[in-house]
Design goal:
single chain, alpha/beta, Isopropylmalate Dehydrogenase, 2 domains, six-stranded mixed sheet, five-stranded mixed sheet, globular
Length: 329
């Protein structure tokens, strides 16, 4: 059974939703569950679900790294925090994967320090097909690196390219750089310098792409720093929710309730793939670390655990790291 360590204290609602999601995942057979956090709080939540007697392991931790904490400083000041203990379970071989809905920066820093960064990669990155209407287009980075040097962005392109080859069998993925215009020379200094580096690389760089063209299938990988990528992701998610709510108001009474629910759910899911998968694995570290939204509810926790289990069973991170290491011999 795949062993999954869960940061029970992470996320906006902490143990209330993480424990509920973990119990759901356990009952569906999604691996061996290890809950990391305040033991008393976890036991109280397990009792609410009549799950206190389930074979779910509890590993105590002390403290929480919040979004307000500086990640690197917090790792030193809170060495027993739940996100660190959870990641360390993977490092020490007690778990096959970690799952957290806590601070993205802290999760990335913990994974980089404890699991180690893949050879040739400066910083790990979050990325994936975040827009349902562009299911074969990877956007990277999605928020783990808000300040990036041009060289780091090129390496995100490498990671995205390997992801596409591993996931979809695309032999020569097209890589584009997200900018304010598709013309050469458009964008800020970071984008212009990155485009120059891409053009000198062996990657299949097709130039700049604008945000509205993410849906056009022009590129397989769209590269941006985490500041821009996170805004794109959250704008898309919010738009999907807003359109679903708008249609619900306008079409209530004009469609059967079941049809209306189906339409609004489909629109929401098309624009919120992260809700469908619960979280995404961090690319560029030597282990499986799945990170989700802080606002995640119990069902998203369940899905993130499922994603972690499938990532381990598919040996995806190992395959990805092997290919990245070959590129940087």
């Amino acid at each position: 059974m795949t062993r999954i360590a869960i940061d029970a204290m992470g996320g906006d609602q902490g143990p209330e939703v993480t424990v509920a999601g973990a119990v759901q995942a356990f009952k569906e057979g999604d691996g061996t569950i290890i809950l990391v956090g305040d033991e008393a709080a976890i036991k109280r939540e397990l009792a609410k679900h009549n799950a206190q007697d389930l074979p779910i392991t509890i590993v105590p931790s002390e403290g929480i790294i919040t979004e307000d904490d500086h990640p690197a400083r917090a790792l030193r000041q809170k060495p027993k925090a739940s996100i660190l203990v959870t990641t360390n379970m993977v490092k020490e071989g007690y778990a096959d994967a970690s799952v957290t809905m806590g601070s993205t920066g802290a999760a990335m820093a913990a994974a980089a320090v404890l699991l180690g960064v893949t050879k040739g990669i400066d910083r790990p990155a979050l990325g994936g097909p975040i827009i349902g209407l562009a299911p074969r287009t990877v956007v990277i980075d999605l928020g783990s690196n808000v300040d990036c040097r041009p060289g780091q962005l090129v390496k995100f392109g490498v990671i995205g390219s390997v992801f596409v080859r591993q996931s979809w069998g695309c032999k020569d993925p097209r890589i584009a750089l997200l900018s304010v215009g598709s013309e050469t020379g458009k964008g800020n200094r970071q984008v212009r310098e990155t485009a120059e580096l891409f053009s000198k690389s062996d990657l299949n760089f097709i130039g700049n792409i604008e945000a509205n063209d993410i849906f056009s299938k022009k590129a397989d990988v769209v590269v941006c720093d985490g500041f821009v990528g996170n805004i794109v992701m959250k704008l898309t998610e919010g738009m999907g929710q807003a359109i679903a709510d708008h249609l619900k108001v306008r079409l209530t009474g004009k469609l059967q309730d079941a049809d209306l629910r189906q339409i609004t759910s489909e629109i929401f899911e098309l624009n919120n793939p992260l809700e469908t998968f619960g979280g995404a694995p961090l690319f560029g570290v030597n282990g499986v670390s799945v990170i989700g939204h802080g606002r995640a509810k119990a069902n998203a926790i369940r899905l993130a655990i499922k994603t972690a289990k499938e990532t381990v069973e598919n040996n995806f991170i190992t395959k990805l790291n092997e290919e990245l290491s070959q590129l940087y011999k």
